[in-house]
Design a protein that fits this description.
Layout lengths: L13 H17 L20 H31 L3 H27 L8 H17 L2 H25 L5 H23 L9 H16 L3
Helix pairs in contact: 1-2, 2-3, 2-4, 2-5, 3-6, 4-5, 5-6
Protein backbone atom coordinates (compact mmCIF):
# COMPACT_ATOMS: atom_id res chain seq x y z
CA UNK A 1 0.00 0.00 0.00
CA UNK A 2 1.06 3.60 -0.58
CA UNK A 3 0.01 5.70 2.44
CA UNK A 4 1.70 8.91 1.27
CA UNK A 5 -1.07 11.37 0.28
CA UNK A 6 -0.88 12.89 -3.16
CA UNK A 7 -0.06 16.60 -3.40
CA UNK A 8 -3.27 18.57 -3.70
CA UNK A 9 -5.26 16.14 -1.54
CA UNK A 10 -7.55 17.39 1.24
CA UNK A 11 -6.24 19.36 4.20
CA UNK A 12 -4.89 17.23 7.04
CA UNK A 13 -4.80 18.34 10.66
CA UNK A 14 -1.93 17.53 13.05
CA UNK A 15 -3.42 14.22 14.20
CA UNK A 16 -4.07 13.17 10.61
CA UNK A 17 -0.42 13.81 9.75
CA UNK A 18 0.83 11.82 12.75
CA UNK A 19 -1.33 8.86 11.73
CA UNK A 20 -0.28 9.14 8.08
CA UNK A 21 3.39 9.26 9.06
CA UNK A 22 2.96 6.21 11.31
CA UNK A 23 1.17 4.34 8.54
CA UNK A 24 3.90 5.26 6.09
CA UNK A 25 6.58 3.97 8.48
CA UNK A 26 4.78 0.65 8.97
CA UNK A 27 4.14 0.29 5.24
CA UNK A 28 7.75 1.07 4.36
CA UNK A 29 9.24 -1.28 6.94
CA UNK A 30 6.81 -4.18 7.05
CA UNK A 31 4.48 -3.83 4.08
CA UNK A 32 4.84 -4.43 0.37
CA UNK A 33 5.20 -0.96 -1.24
CA UNK A 34 3.61 -0.74 -4.67
CA UNK A 35 5.32 1.12 -7.48
CA UNK A 36 3.24 3.38 -9.70
CA UNK A 37 5.75 3.03 -12.51
CA UNK A 38 6.83 -0.18 -14.18
CA UNK A 39 10.05 -1.73 -12.92
CA UNK A 40 12.69 -0.72 -15.51
CA UNK A 41 14.61 -3.92 -14.86
CA UNK A 42 11.84 -6.18 -16.13
CA UNK A 43 12.69 -5.31 -19.75
CA UNK A 44 16.12 -6.90 -19.23
CA UNK A 45 16.96 -10.59 -19.25
CA UNK A 46 17.47 -12.08 -15.78
CA UNK A 47 20.88 -13.65 -16.33
CA UNK A 48 22.02 -16.32 -13.86
CA UNK A 49 25.01 -14.78 -12.08
CA UNK A 50 27.98 -16.53 -10.55
CA UNK A 51 27.60 -16.93 -6.75
CA UNK A 52 30.13 -14.17 -5.95
CA UNK A 53 28.54 -11.82 -8.49
CA UNK A 54 25.06 -12.53 -7.11
CA UNK A 55 26.19 -11.84 -3.53
CA UNK A 56 27.87 -8.59 -4.58
CA UNK A 57 24.84 -7.45 -6.59
CA UNK A 58 22.57 -8.29 -3.65
CA UNK A 59 24.80 -6.31 -1.29
CA UNK A 60 24.65 -3.25 -3.52
CA UNK A 61 20.88 -3.53 -4.02
CA UNK A 62 20.45 -3.90 -0.26
CA UNK A 63 22.35 -0.63 0.17
CA UNK A 64 20.04 0.97 -2.39
CA UNK A 65 16.98 -0.44 -0.62
CA UNK A 66 18.22 1.05 2.68
CA UNK A 67 18.79 4.34 0.86
CA UNK A 68 15.16 4.36 -0.21
CA UNK A 69 13.98 3.52 3.30
CA UNK A 70 16.02 6.49 4.52
CA UNK A 71 14.70 8.71 1.73
CA UNK A 72 11.11 7.87 2.66
CA UNK A 73 11.78 8.78 6.27
CA UNK A 74 13.74 11.94 5.45
CA UNK A 75 11.12 13.36 3.11
CA UNK A 76 8.18 12.47 5.33
CA UNK A 77 9.97 13.94 8.34
CA UNK A 78 10.76 17.13 6.42
CA UNK A 79 7.22 17.39 5.06
CA UNK A 80 5.81 17.03 8.58
CA UNK A 81 7.35 20.36 9.61
CA UNK A 82 7.47 22.20 6.26
CA UNK A 83 5.88 25.65 6.51
CA UNK A 84 5.04 26.20 2.84
CA UNK A 85 2.35 23.98 1.26
CA UNK A 86 4.29 23.99 -2.02
CA UNK A 87 7.42 22.70 -0.31
CA UNK A 88 5.42 20.04 1.50
CA UNK A 89 3.80 18.94 -1.76
CA UNK A 90 7.20 18.70 -3.47
CA UNK A 91 8.64 16.61 -0.65
CA UNK A 92 5.69 14.23 -0.71
CA UNK A 93 5.88 13.92 -4.49
CA UNK A 94 9.56 13.02 -4.22
CA UNK A 95 8.73 10.52 -1.48
CA UNK A 96 6.22 8.86 -3.79
CA UNK A 97 8.90 8.37 -6.44
CA UNK A 98 11.16 6.95 -3.76
CA UNK A 99 8.36 4.43 -3.09
CA UNK A 100 8.81 3.25 -6.68
CA UNK A 101 12.54 2.83 -6.02
CA UNK A 102 11.85 0.97 -2.78
CA UNK A 103 9.53 -1.48 -4.53
CA UNK A 104 11.96 -2.05 -7.41
CA UNK A 105 14.92 -2.69 -5.09
CA UNK A 106 12.86 -5.04 -2.95
CA UNK A 107 11.79 -7.00 -6.02
CA UNK A 108 15.37 -7.26 -7.27
CA UNK A 109 16.58 -8.48 -3.86
CA UNK A 110 14.02 -11.28 -4.00
CA UNK A 111 15.16 -12.19 -7.51
CA UNK A 112 18.73 -12.38 -6.18
CA UNK A 113 17.57 -14.69 -3.35
CA UNK A 114 18.46 -12.06 -0.78
CA UNK A 115 16.71 -9.81 1.74
CA UNK A 116 16.53 -6.18 2.91
CA UNK A 117 18.66 -4.90 5.77
CA UNK A 118 17.74 -6.23 9.20
CA UNK A 119 18.38 -2.73 10.58
CA UNK A 120 15.74 -0.96 8.49
CA UNK A 121 13.68 0.17 11.53
CA UNK A 122 16.81 1.86 12.92
CA UNK A 123 17.63 3.50 9.57
CA UNK A 124 14.04 4.77 9.26
CA UNK A 125 13.82 6.22 12.78
CA UNK A 126 17.15 8.01 12.50
CA UNK A 127 16.36 9.43 9.07
CA UNK A 128 12.91 10.66 10.11
CA UNK A 129 14.45 12.49 13.08
CA UNK A 130 17.13 14.05 10.85
CA UNK A 131 14.50 15.12 8.31
CA UNK A 132 12.31 16.74 10.96
CA UNK A 133 15.28 18.59 12.49
CA UNK A 134 16.36 19.82 9.05
CA UNK A 135 12.84 20.97 8.29
CA UNK A 136 12.58 22.99 11.48
CA UNK A 137 15.36 25.28 10.21
CA UNK A 138 12.99 26.61 7.53
CA UNK A 139 12.00 25.67 3.99
CA UNK A 140 15.15 27.04 2.35
CA UNK A 141 17.33 24.81 4.53
CA UNK A 142 14.79 22.01 4.12
CA UNK A 143 15.22 22.11 0.35
CA UNK A 144 18.98 22.51 0.69
CA UNK A 145 19.02 19.25 2.61
CA UNK A 146 17.13 17.63 -0.27
CA UNK A 147 19.72 18.88 -2.77
CA UNK A 148 22.69 17.60 -0.77
CA UNK A 149 21.00 14.27 -0.05
CA UNK A 150 20.17 13.70 -3.70
CA UNK A 151 23.65 14.70 -4.87
CA UNK A 152 25.24 12.20 -2.50
CA UNK A 153 22.78 9.47 -3.48
CA UNK A 154 23.39 10.17 -7.16
CA UNK A 155 27.15 9.80 -6.56
CA UNK A 156 26.85 6.46 -4.82
CA UNK A 157 24.46 5.15 -7.50
CA UNK A 158 27.07 6.10 -10.08
CA UNK A 159 29.62 4.06 -8.10
CA UNK A 160 27.24 1.11 -8.14
CA UNK A 161 26.87 1.32 -11.90
CA UNK A 162 30.64 1.00 -12.13
CA UNK A 163 30.87 -2.02 -9.80
CA UNK A 164 27.69 -4.01 -10.51
CA UNK A 165 28.38 -7.15 -12.57
CA UNK A 166 28.13 -6.31 -16.27
CA UNK A 167 25.78 -9.25 -16.76
CA UNK A 168 23.33 -7.93 -14.16
CA UNK A 169 21.32 -5.84 -16.61
CA UNK A 170 18.24 -5.83 -14.38
CA UNK A 171 19.97 -4.21 -11.42
CA UNK A 172 21.79 -1.79 -13.70
CA UNK A 173 18.51 -0.64 -15.33
CA UNK A 174 16.94 -0.01 -11.92
CA UNK A 175 19.96 1.92 -10.64
CA UNK A 176 20.16 4.02 -13.82
CA UNK A 177 16.52 5.07 -13.52
CA UNK A 178 16.95 5.85 -9.83
CA UNK A 179 20.00 7.99 -10.58
CA UNK A 180 18.05 10.07 -13.13
CA UNK A 181 15.20 10.54 -10.65
CA UNK A 182 17.53 11.69 -7.86
CA UNK A 183 19.17 14.25 -10.14
CA UNK A 184 15.74 15.61 -11.06
CA UNK A 185 14.73 15.88 -7.39
CA UNK A 186 17.84 17.95 -6.71
CA UNK A 187 17.14 20.24 -9.67
CA UNK A 188 13.54 20.77 -8.55
CA UNK A 189 14.64 21.65 -5.02
CA UNK A 190 17.18 24.15 -6.38
CA UNK A 191 14.50 25.77 -8.52
CA UNK A 192 12.24 25.99 -5.46
CA UNK A 193 14.80 28.06 -3.53
CA UNK A 194 17.14 25.61 -1.80
CA UNK A 195 19.93 27.13 0.30
CA UNK A 196 23.49 25.79 0.46
CA UNK A 197 24.06 23.83 3.65
CA UNK A 198 26.80 25.24 5.91
CA UNK A 199 29.99 23.39 6.77
CA UNK A 200 30.28 20.76 8.22
CA UNK A 201 26.77 19.44 7.47
CA UNK A 202 27.56 17.94 4.00
CA UNK A 203 30.67 16.21 5.39
CA UNK A 204 28.71 14.77 8.31
CA UNK A 205 26.02 13.53 5.91
CA UNK A 206 28.69 11.86 3.75
CA UNK A 207 30.25 10.18 6.79
CA UNK A 208 26.86 8.85 7.94
CA UNK A 209 26.15 7.60 4.42
CA UNK A 210 29.49 5.79 4.28
CA UNK A 211 28.77 4.04 7.58
CA UNK A 212 25.32 3.05 6.38
CA UNK A 213 26.71 1.56 3.17
CA UNK A 214 29.38 -0.46 4.99
CA UNK A 215 26.80 -1.95 7.38
CA UNK A 216 23.91 -2.43 4.94
CA UNK A 217 26.08 -4.29 2.41
CA UNK A 218 26.19 -7.22 4.85
CA UNK A 219 23.40 -6.79 7.41
Amino acid sequence: MNPIPRPGSRHFNALDRVLIDAQNALGTLFGAPRARRANPGLDQADIVLEPDERRHAAGLMRINHVGEVCAQALYVGQAAVARDPGTRAQLLAAAQEETDHLAWCGQRLRELDSRPSLLNPLWYAGSYAIGAIAGLRGDGWNLGFVVETERQVEAHLDEHLQTLPLADARSRAIVSTMKADEARHAEQALAQGARDLPFPVPSLMAAASKLMKLVAYRI
